[in-house]
Write a structure and sequence with these properties.
Strand content of chain A: 35-45%
Largest interface: A-B, 48 and 49 residues
Number of domains of chain A: 1
Structural class of chain A: alpha+beta
Number of helices of chain A: 3
CATH class of chain A: Alpha Beta
Oligomer: homodimer
Strand order of the largest sheet of chain A: 2-3-4-1-5-8-7-6
Chain lengths: ~140, ~140
């Protein structure tokens, strides 16, 4: 395994709409995707493009959302996870598990349509890490 | 202003040495800088290269460090800030201030040797944002 691209930084927010306005007004973001729902993961998401990576805005889909839990602790929102690309999700899971990491659940399809997993934050010094199989059309 | 490159994600850690080992073992990081001190900012830092951006590991330099405060709340560490590049720091500060953002202090020289500022987290939904003038030799 070799450290892959940082696909995105995940940022929890109580309002994707307000966050978009902030990124547009203060930072000059101008490549902003259309927000969409991922009900199976309990989130609404929206990707904002920086020249070399993306910011994923994440809003709770409902009260049982993991993001709702995040916002109960930090109502304003904040950084939620970082996502690195891997060439093959099953191989990445096997290697990380062999090296002692705890993978949270089986691979599932993520916001970019490829398999993803999350790694327990205790394995990365309190940081939630997502691994995402690189979309084939991107490279 | 136009949203610039994500120069790095800043990650607070109680031990840069242990974090380096984690990134090396679990994610296969192999381009890892030499840790160095920034006593004026109260931190020790180390940059780990991903193909498209960097992770900045940040350890407290002393007990008065802002990172020491972070670790009192979250002892394991975690995501601390995101840093976007801007072509000119003074212009960025002027524009953001005009748009209502609160800039934390005057520009100072950051870990990459160019001027930086931080923006108040309340302006970005709880996320601490660093703006960094793009190093001239990089582009």
């Amino acid at each position: 395994m070799k450290l892959g691209r940082l696909n995105h930084v995940g940022v929890a927010t109580p309002s994707i709409e307000k966050s978009i306005e902030t990124y547009r007004t203060l930072l000059g973001a101008d490549v902003i995707g259309t927000p969409f729902d991922l009900p199976a993961q309990g989130v609404k998401v929206c990707f904002i493009d920086a020249p070399n990576t993306q910011i994923e805005l994440i809003e709770p889909y409902d009260e049982s959302s993991p993001i709702a839990g995040f916002l109960r602790k930090d109502p304003a929102g904040g950084q939620h996870h970082v996502c690195f690309e891997v060439p093959d999700i099953d191989q990445a899971v096997a290697e990380m598990t062999a090296n002692g990491a705890t993978i949270l659940g089986a691979p599932r399809i993520g916001a970019h349509g490829t398999p993803i997993v999350f790694v327990h934050p205790r394995d990365f010094g309190g940081m939630l890490v997502e691994l995402m199989e690189t979309p084939k059309e991107d490279h």
